[in-house]
Write a structure and sequence with these properties.
Strand content: 5-15%
Number of strands: 10
Structural class: alpha+beta
Largest sheet: 5 strands, antiparallel
Strand order of the largest sheet: 1-2-3-5-4
Shape: globular
Oligomer: single chain
Distance between the termini: 34 Å
Helix content: 40-55%
Radius of gyration: 20 Å
Length: 363
């Protein structure tokens, strides 16, 4: 559950959006937080592919506030930021309009704003220390995965088949034209991805990635129900794990949508484990997710349908992995390459094992 904090993010408009971490001054933070900040220490954290994150250590005069916060800002060149404006709007919309309605654990938002063109944004979020992020290239324990799927069930159950989700423009479902554009972009990006990582991908993986790209347009338009708030990039690097009670919190909401919940479940399990470990544990994890939905009041969703949606959902893996690798605003790095290779090989194995491509066009 979400922890106590301000009833809603405090919004100020002078100036609303920052471009650099150097602009996170005591004066600006005082206006943003509605408290008298007299000093701030800033340090970079994480290795975001689509922006930058900073830990702020704050000192106040008078009314106290959070001793530390995490600031998220846009990153990369002007062109890269413009390309990511759609995702930036999603994350701001999520924190300002949806986060307070969820049963799942997400960071408390203290401030959020975005520029008119969507190319710059500023978020001030709860610092989840001492929780630590997962490491995508390394996998996780079964206990951690179980906590992650419980949190995912809470997320999805919060707004399960809620028609009011359609009123949020940043959650608008993909239409036929958008599906074709995504598919065309993925087909092109897949060739670049295969060429970049040809020494690390087997022939089967390259073939699976290409087949997934070709199937993407119809897949994006399928399985309209059930629908829920879908994170879209629910994976280890975007999750924080508490060291003592096993609580899991989800970060990075730039791919949020109202869509088929099985895609989040498949993407998490399919990218978290090597093939052998996934085969051993996925049945129990899917069952745990389904039990979580039932515990949160979801009805009329039998387990066999959940399993089918999980199988079909694995095409989320190539979509996010390939586009993320090729279009990330951050430069390439050894850690980033290891992450993308692990995600691609794992998700391709899951697609083949579960015959996910055979389900395209069945609902």
């Amino acid at each position: 559950m979400r922890r106590a904090g301000p009833p809603a993010p405090y919004i100020c408009f002078v100036p609303p959006v920052l471009d650099r971490a150097d602009d996170l001054t005591p004066q600006w933070l005082s206006a943003a937080l509605g408290r008298d900040v007299v000093a701030v220490a800033t340090e970079p954290i994480g290795a975001g592919q689509m922006g930058s994150s900073w830990r702020l250590t704050l000192t106040y005069r008078g009314e106290p506030g959070p001793s530390s916060l995490v600031a998220k800002l846009a990153g990369g060149s002007d062109a890269a930021r413009a390309q990511m404006a759609f995702g930036y709007r999603k994350e701001i919309g999520f924190y300002l309009q949806l986060a307070s309605t969820l049963k799942a654990r997400v960071p408390q938002c203290w401030y959020g704003a975005i520029s008119e063109d969507g190319a710059n944004f500023t978020l001030l979020l709860e610092d989840l220390t001492p929780s630590v992020p997962g490491v995508q290239a390394q996998s996780c324990s079964v206990a951690q995965a179980s906590g992650a799927v419980r949190n995912l069930a809470a997320l999805h159950a919060s707004r399960w088949n809620d028609p009011t989700l359609r009123d949020a423009d940043f959650l608008a479902p993909i239409d036929g034209g958008m599906a074709e554009l995504f598919a065309a972009a993925l087909i092109d990006a897949t060739e670049a991805f295969v060429a970049r990582y040809e020494d690390d991908l087997g022939d089967d993986d390259a073939e699976t990635l290409r087949a997934a790209a070709q199937a993407m347009a119809p897949w994006l338009l399928e399985r309209h129900e059930p629908f829920a708030i879908v994170h879209g990039d629910y994976r280890l690097d975007n999750l924080m794990f508490a060291p003592h009670d096993g609580e899991v919190a989800a970060l990075d909401w730039q791919s949020v949508s109202a869509g088929p919940p099985g895609r989040d479940l498949a993407y998490f399990i399919g990218t978290a484990f090597d093939a052998a470990d996934r085969r051993r544990h996925e049945e129990g994890l899917v069952a745990g997710y389904h039990e979580g939905l039932l515990a949160h009041g979801v009805a009329g969703y039998p387990f066999d349908r959940c399993v089918e949606d999980y199988r079909a959902g694995h095409l989320q893996g190539p979509l996010i992995t390939v586009l993320g690798a090729i279009h990330a605003t951050a430069g390439r790095s050894d850690n980033g390459d290891r992450m993308f290779i692990a995600m691609a090989t794992r998700t391709c194995a899951a697609i083949r094992d579960l015959r996910s491509l055979e389900l395209v066009g069945t609902r």
